[in-house]
Amino acid sequence: MTLLVPAAVFAILYVVSRRRDARRLRNGVFLVGALGALLLAGVLELAAASALLQLVVVLGFGLAGVLILVLAVFLVANGVTMLRLEGRSLGNLLSLLAGLALVALPTAAVLLVFLPARTALPSGVVTVLVSLGVLVFLACLYAAATFAAFGLYSLVYSRYRHTDRPDALVVLGSGLIRGEVPPLLRSRLDRALAIYRSVPVGTRRPILVPSGGQGSDEPRPEGEAMAEYLLAQGVDPADVHPETASTSTRENLVLSREVQHATGRGGSTLVVTNDYHVLRAALLARAVGSDAQVVGSPTAAYYVPSAFLREYVAIMVEHKRLNAVAIAAVVAFVALLTVVSFLPV
Known about the structure:
Layout: H1 4-20, H2 25-49, H3 51-86, H4 90-114, H5 123-158, E1 168-172, H6 183-197, E2 207-211, H7 222-232, H8 249-262, E3 269-274, H9 278-287, E4 293-297, H10 304-318, H11 320-342
Helix pairs in contact: 1-2, 2-3, 2-5, 3-4, 4-5, 4-10, 5-11
């Protein structure tokens, strides 16, 4: 039961950190740490209780392995669907690659750790191969832990209750199709419209800032097409102030804030995007010094796995220094153990 202590510590850190600012990735780390320690404590208690419960634990691990295999098959199938419906691109390949890696990397780790000792290879080679297997296993564990922190907290944050009466609603752009608003972007605009229309009659409504510049494959700026859609839905033209110069989410947030201030609406801001993009948009809002919170709109089910994986990769790249330090520490630790194993006893 000693693992209940770190579980409690992580839980307290999570509550304190989230109250200070819900837009922190460390909140997800603390949450996963608390749940992971609690789960491990429960497993160890069950294993120590009786032989029957030990069998239950073993069966539980077996079931987890089956579920991982099912997940891998699902991701591969989803990757094929993405390529068929969305076209060939690296982003659309992510779920397919993740599904293959989910099977290949753990299998490689197990083979490297257990197979060399059963061969006639020199002991030094066996040690190096086993070390490599341990390194692959730890890399898988790191990827799983960081993705769990991102994925779980994305779901938690997307259900965070924000102000119902913001001074400005910023709608983040996404790609146009032949210059028109596609379903993915329309869902963001419709969510913003629902919030805009929920303000009671006689109360000042928030301004709407559709934000997005013109991509190289687009005939016009996204903000312009989005504004046109909002006006077609009956929004007061005086409430629509498009931003048409941004080329990234970071620029969406910075330039939209300038538009907001230019209209004299410097109060609370609510950013609208798709649900898979909510956490990263919130992290970027905090990074640029904005107090904006973020809400999400629904996304087609087949699109969600690849979209979440893209967001995870983007966040890992944005925190590349921290990840590089963590990975370097793991490599150094395994390398040290390998060197020590070669020393005479």
